[in-house]
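Morning!

This is the sequence you dropped in the shared folder:
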Amino acid sequence: MRLTTAQALVRWLLAQRAELPDGSEGPLFPGVFAIFGHGNVLGVGAALAEVRDRLPVWRGHTEQGMALAAVGVAKATHRRQVGVATSSIGPGALNMVTAAGVAHANRLPLLLLPGDVFASRAPDPVLQQVEHFGDATATANDAFRAVSRYFDRITRPEQLVAALPQVARVLTDPADCGPVVLALPQDVQAESHDFPDALFAPVLHRPPRPRPDTAALGRAGEVLRAARKPLLLLGGGVRYSGAAGRAVRFAERHLLPVAETTAGRTLVPHAHPLHVGPLGVTGSASANTLAGAADVVLAVGTRLQDFTTASWTVFSPEVRLVAVNAARFDAVKHGALSVVGDADEALRELTDLLGDWRADKAWSARAAVERAAWDCYVDSLREPKPGLPTYAQVVGVVNELSEAADYVMTASGGLPGELVGGWRAVGAATMDVEYGFSCMGYELAGAWGAAIARPEGVVTTLLGDGSYLMLNSELFSAAFAGHGFVAVVCDNDGYAVIHRLQNQHGAAGFNNLYPDCLTAHADPPRADFAAHAASLGCAVFPAADLDALPAAYRAAREAARTQRRPAVVVVRTHPSAWTEAGARWEVGVADPALKAHQLGYLTPP
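The structure's back. Tokens below.
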């Protein structure tokens, strides 16, 4: 059929279907986030307008924000659906590079459709064209190459026939999953071609489940059988495989203590006797203690990021790693015995191989003992105390009032440590902590995407004042579109967690908390978050103190559900009270002389 490039692309999007986590069938691409400009409004924009009754198009207000919302869709649907974002050329396109980085680091599907300069070059240089002096083929969109799993520039309409199957492959493959960027020159978007009907035949995408190599599985079984103190570690790959139930049954059959990574949080019921808690810097002392004593760690579906491994100090130097992962890239890290395959299939076959083998009961019993001690510590942090509320107390209130179908999220600053370490699961796979890229601003934009993808339950996002000020425009996008979620804004006067890092490594406070920042004012202005959120169309519920927080949060939950707009809770919080998991994180530290000077031991050189 004869179509423009843009029409063919949009028609292909509509033909792609997906098997959803509950087993039902739905669209692979449930909607498009768009900001139109001269580079896409008369191509992709016109094509989307023709199918507006079948493919929702949500208007964003920053390209970065709407692309992060698209990431939020993928996270909330466990990678079964893919958010799409389209922009004009130049600055609009470059604003989406950060979101591509988030998707790349977190192994999440994302389809970005930035406009590009004219393939014909007839009107060059066009508005917003960067003009690379030494390479006439380079455009601003080449900046996406470093953060794309698949990048293509469609310079002729017929190239879609070869490109689109590769797009689908990357977006739905458990090993290669990541962002796809199709750069679309604005003249090519409007050019026509006779496309084969087969390109638009409906396709149902089911998660492929590659089975592991038998020999590799056998070696893993031998290592586990010889283990005296084995630990099972569950990552995001378990979530995306839908293997949480299988993992818990595996642990029960073989009496393995179970820890979770950041991406694996809420996969295990909190009170399960084998659940030892989250691992790493933002995890728990309970899991870190067992990890330090373990002689074998069976790591399933995790890329073993530095916060999970405490910069590779959380495990014993003699530990043996067995890594089960769909991606060989992640399975071979740090000399692990690699088992490449789907988490659900690998655990099923491995449990058959192990038969009635079980870990020592005394070792397994340590999980409940250590986690109980950690729970007591968290309880002590949640107790009311004089002064400003702490992050731990705020998380405690949200946790106590949450329900099984709810979804909680955060991304950056100090809240990941409080949410990962302190949250007690009330539902299965109901947390999104974007700590692969730790992207400030994801908290609000990602919550918009999650609210679209998860109409059941309440989406609650927790964020600091720094993240709010960095990227808040999608509050208005969500309010305008009619998508409700709760945002709990914790105002602690600046970038408090970086101030903490600065101080802990010998530096004086500088440029993080507002009192340490340069200003011409004796009494600098403060942001009025409640007034600002109200001006963006949100329902607002200020909480003057910890006692007022439960009522404010209850009211916000009700407003998000009934008013179909974001509900913002604003609370002043303590700037230096933190949950401590007792793990190390490797960062660059100033040289000894400078460090000593900062501590006041030396006069300046």
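Headline: DSSP finds 24 helices and 23 strands in the chain.

More detail when I'm at my desk.
O.
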